[in-house]
Amino acid sequence: MEQKIIINVGRQLGSGGHDIGRMLALDFNAKYYDREILNLAAKESGLSEKIFEENDEKRGFFRGLLNIGSPHVSGYKPDLSQETLFQFQSDAIRKAATKDSCVFVGRCADYVLRDFKNAVNIFVTASMPYRIEQIMNKQRMNRDQAKKFIEQKESRRAAYYNYYTGKKWGAAESYDLCVDSSVLGIVETEKLIAEFIRKKFAK
Amino acid sequence: MLTDMTDNKQAALELGTKPVRLLLWQYALPAIVAMLASSLYNIIDRAMIGQIVGPEAIAGLGITFPFMNLSAAFGAAVGVGSSACISVKLGQQDYKVAENLLGNTVTLNLIIGFLFMVVSLIFLDPILRFFGASDATLPYAREFMIVILLGNMVTHMYFGMNAVLRAAGKPRHAMYATLFTVAMNIILVFAFVWWFRWGIRGAALATITSQSLALCWQLWIFSDKKELLHFKRGIYKLKKDLVKNIISIGISPFLMNATSCLIVIFMNNQFVHYGGDMAVGAYSIANSVVMVFFMFVMGVNQGMQPIVGYNYGAEKYDRMLRCLWLTIACATVFLLVGWTLSMLFPRQIARIFTTDPTLLDLSARGIKLDMLVFFVVGSQAAITHFFQSIGKVKVSIFLSLSRQLFLLLPMAFVFPLFWDLDGVWYSMPASDFGSFAMTIPMLLWYMKKFKNYGTEDNH
Fold it and tell me: Which of A125, A198, B272, B395 could form a disulfide with B132 if both were Cys (CB 3.0 to 4.6 A apart)?
């Protein structure tokens, strides 16, 4: 496949979106960016990665205060508001997407890259019990903790996505393909998605 | 637009390399000019009213001060919120939503401005009473507020559009609008109050008229179809998620502003209770004097914010701290000048506002007591702002609340029980010093963290 392709993977917590993304990157010989986006953003802005980590896929109630002050320039307001950090991050995403084939996991990449004709948007879900199981194994938590962890982190993720994109996180119409990974398992689901992508770009 | 963006990025990256002194100068100067301009207007407004309309009028004006600030707090909530949202959308080249935000900002400002006007006009007298108006000052406060409230939608629109101008990459235009309003206001106050003798109503009319003129210019800018953001059909209908986003940003600035309104209301009431109307007048005069100097400090702080923020983010802690020290030094030196003037010539300063002997005595004493340890305020404000700039929002909120809510409020309640009217005045330097004493250890504690970090990995 000569053509450069961009695969954006949205994912529910514990749905295996991360692993599926990694496998897709191998299949399509693409660069893989999940948390790596933060590193890109840090390089783009000259700021440290830590700042981006602290603000990764969440919003803070009082952080609105950071938008007061006198923005002297548009686009890049010189402050540490989450809005400014998002701007750096999305510029980094765009830059990477013009260079190579990429897989982006989360960080509103589907919205940021909405004008890229060569992008395909995937959303991976899974049943709640399956996800709880996954998180229990990964984070070494008991069932209740895992459930709480998922709910908290996901509502933050949704608020983040909805705020920046003006769309609804996980709403089917935003994506080319939505799939429940707990039905076929991660490996088979990835194969299905890869097949879908191949067909899309074969057209 | 694209070259514009790279320029902006260059500007952001420069924050990490250019000499700190130059940066602070470059960023603080426009902020200082804007701040000083508005406090100059404030002084002239009050001086006119005090000299020509009389001492009760200036007390009445003091009563309306938190009222106007409350209205401004609503305006700022929408302004800060929508400008943040618009710059996000412009950054993503999502012009359709940015335009929608512009339209929604207009609608939101009109609705909030209208509701605030109606509710305030209906309950005007009880509100003013609650704010501390007496039989003597109520007529003045009422006369002033009726005009201000009738123009409330203009005021909200004017501030809202100014915020949008900034977000739309026209900070210069926003600055011109500010300076124009101030200049126009000064001219009109002279005309209405001094020449036509329209009384306190004239001052309110001057404010609203100059804002209306500036608003016309702003609307004209946004009507230009060549502008990236401009008015068109279909953008005004409120969209739930856009409004939600605007408010989610605007709510915390609103809460901060509203808190300081409550404090001023409480202080006004304490002054009325222990010293009568003239004491409120004196507080209003002393406040104007404090504001002139404090606005300078705020200007420097605003200039510091991007520099400190970026260098913190880039882990260039030495540059960050150098900028903080420089800010503290500038602010403190300036406040020392203000402090010396106020301690040596309080009477002459008060004389700018009034000729009434009672008010003159009270104001002169008030200025001296209020500003007793004024020079510590510079570092207190700079450090509070510093924490905000580096994203430690909660620390910064705690520090500014501690000054107002936890120190000033109880002290202003307890001190007059012992020292009567003087006690109310004492509470101000006491809380200034108290909050200064709190910010310093807070900063030192954080500095230790930076130092440790710096030695752990040397890059």
Answer: B272
